[in-house]
Amino acid sequence: MNGVSTGFTRELAIFRDRLPCDVKGRIATFTLGYSHPIEYYLPEGIDLKVDKPVANLTPLTLTGPDRQLLGQVAATSAALRPPDPYKNKGIRYVGELLRKKVGKTEREERSSMGTGL
Question: How many whole angstroms from its chain centre is CA 34?
């Protein structure tokens, strides 16, 4: 009876500068850096709360009585903008570790371009 009495929660975070998420009724609108905003329709019983952005991240809290449906909505929301291993930007679960990859250095970029002749 845990889901009925207290409910379940999943916490996500949008890691990036100024990527707002707006919730109006059952529609969540994500602005994730694509050419258009993404509208996601929340199923009945699942609520999304967007907290105030703090230091390049926007916390999202999903709550609902159905654990399976809540996990599916959280996974679908996280898949809208997968985390980038080079810049650490995107949507991910709170507490999820992401190994940052090292990008090319200036010297490697020059050697990979070649001389062209």
Answer: 13
